[in-house]
Design brief:
- By secondary structure, the chain is an alpha/beta fold.
- It has one domain: Rossmann fold (3-Layer(aba) Sandwich).
- 50% of the residues lie in helices and 20% in strands.
- It is built from 4 helices and 4 strands; from the N terminus they run βαβαβαβα.
- A 4-stranded parallel beta sheet has the order 2-1-3-4.
- It is globular, with a radius of gyration of 15 Å.
């Protein structure tokens, strides 16, 4: 069975206030999609990392990870750091397919939401 798991991939911060919205998002998604189907990982400064999640996925029998970068744009982290971490995980776990999708900030609905918030801020 080819089971898939969604990885919500955030930057990471030592400040727990920064992490809270991502933890709420992850919890909400796990409630909706199933606790086994969603994980939150961090690029740096906090755990779990992508490698931690890959290790867990292999242990749990997942063969496919879909990584959703929770970034507003595809800067160096998305273009360089995430692919490097994916390559390291795939070297260790060649049976695991890891797919990175475009960052959330590039999705048209996110752009529309930001525009609506900006208009509201002007009022």
């Amino acid at each position: 069975m080819n089971k898939s798991r969604l990885i919500l991939f955030a930057h990471g911060s030592r400040d727990p206030r920064w992490r809270k919205p991502f933890e709420v998002l992850s919890s909400n998604m796990a409630t909706e999609l199933g606790a086994d189907c969603v994980r939150l990982a961090y690029l740096e400064m906090f755990r779990p990392t992508l490698f931690d999640i890959a290790t867990e996925a292999v242990r749990d029998g997942f063969l496919h990870l879909r990584v959703l970068p929770l970034f507003l744009s595809a800067g160096a982290h998305v273009a360089e750091d995430i692919p490097t971490q994916v390559a390291e995980a795939q070297t260790m776990y060649p049976q695991l397919h890891i797919e990175v999708v475009p960052p959330v900030g590039e999705h048209p609905s996110v752009v529309s939401a930001i525009e609506a918030i900006a208009r509201e801020a002007l009022r």
